[in-house]
Amino acid sequence: MTTTIEVGMLGLGTVGSGVVERLSRAAVKIEQTQGLRFHLATVAVNHLNAPRTVSLPLGTQLTDSIDAVVTDPQIQLVIEVMGTLTTAKRAITTALKHGKSVVTANKDLIATAGETLVRLAQREGCDLFYEASVAGGIPILRTLTDSYATDTVQSVAGIINGTANYVLSAMTRTGQTYEQALRAAQRAGYAEADPTNDVGGLDATYKLIILSRFAFGQSLTVEQVRPVGITAVTTSQCQLAATSGWQLKLLAQAQRHGNQLYCRVAPVAVGDGRALSRVNGVQNGVAISSQAIGESLYTGPGAGSTATANSVLNDVIAAGQRLRLGTRGPAFNRNAGQLGVKRFDQLPQAYLLFTTLPSAVMADYANEAHFSLKPLSRGSYQTSTLSPVQLAQLQATRAITAIPIADSVAWEPVSVAPLPIRTNIAI
Ligand SMILES: NC(=O)C1=CN([C@@H]2O[C@H](COP(=O)(O)OP(=O)(O)OC[C@H]3O[C@@H](n4cnc5c(N)ncnc54)[C@H](OP(=O)(O)O)[C@@H]3O)[C@@H](O)[C@H]2O)C=CC1
Ligand SMILES: N[C@@H](CC=O)C(=O)O
């Protein structure tokens, strides 16, 4: 017997159009395999007369009133794919208070107000799912919930912003400028309406915050992560690094060490031997290290209409099944931990350096401060382990860009001599 679920949707842009298209394409399969039929009753948009890439099914209402969706007593399930913070929070809150289950792809909102919304959903006995909020088409949240249920995660290292990875890959592989590559990512529908968070590392930080709740039961804040984006990375740096066996990636990391969780979102040099170095373009990759499974890598498209819509619809089906069975309420994530939070940049580690300073000056630095410097190609170097103080002093020259090398952290303190302070060296 088939159960019909009345659905309302907020947003009909890149992801919303994908949801409409996938929902009609997969309707027969969903009915056959799940015993569910989803009837898209109403879709709310901002601009009623804007051109659309999909046609709505016959009978689906298009409105510019969010309330017409979230307060409609017929609607049982609301899909929020419009983005925004305040408007989306108000809409989801109203939907939950009206007893509706909610599926959202909104990482900004789930990272910053997710805990409040989860509590509200629990109080109202509704479901709140958000698989598409992290890594687009990769079912990483459900995998962490279901497949790591008995396991203990030690570390998560992810390329989790499709736009930034597309840009860095294009700069490395085709020599495009940052601006050219970003424009292409925008045209492909990977970037947010305003791409500032994509390239500034905030989008990856929001996703790391959500991932960390599932992997460690630990909530992070943007202030704790202090993300560094890719806006200062140049095509020349990407290509010099690649020549020497490193790929520059915007990496989001969280790693348990004792009772601390170390985190970072920053451009990092990933060695060619590591699987993450081969995750290119809009692809995302999440490498998980855990006690029972060991090392695993989950890859797939991190953004884009169809792949993201697929994740949204998997949540819709999960919520639909609970509506059918009357089992709504259990939170998507119930992992809870109590770790202190630190940043990777508080630890000694090795770096790739890019500079226009003469090699003799760089050699003097290394000699005076007792660290070693391996020259790579044209103004690039690989350092031995540097303490945070040494790094700060080195960067005070303002003529050196330092990119941390993945997996080079020294967990035990190392004794390193401080550098003499030299600022504003003439080049
Ligand atoms: N694009 C992607 O690859 C991914 C996106 N996401 C997330 O999914 C969400 C949607 O992204 P995306 O589809 O790319 O965004 P788009 O900008 O393409 O679409 C946003 C849609 O929301 C509608 N909208 C915006 N504000 C309002 C409002 N106040 N009232 C009613 N409708 C509104 C817009 O209406 P109108 O068309 O009339 O302007 C538009 O249809 C975001 O949270 C994003 O972060 C998550 C994973 C991947
Ligand atoms: N803008 C985001 C879209 C998916 O979350 C990205 O580029 O990863």
TrEMBL record:
The keyword Methyltransferase does not apply. GO terms for molecular function: homoserine dehydrogenase activity; NADP binding. Keywords: Amino-acid biosynthesis, Methionine biosynthesis, NADP, Oxidoreductase, Sodium, Threonine biosynthesis. The active site is at 207 (proton donor). Its EC number is 1.1.1.3. Belongs to the homoserine dehydrogenase family. This is Homoserine dehydrogenase. It comes from Lactiplantibacillus garii.
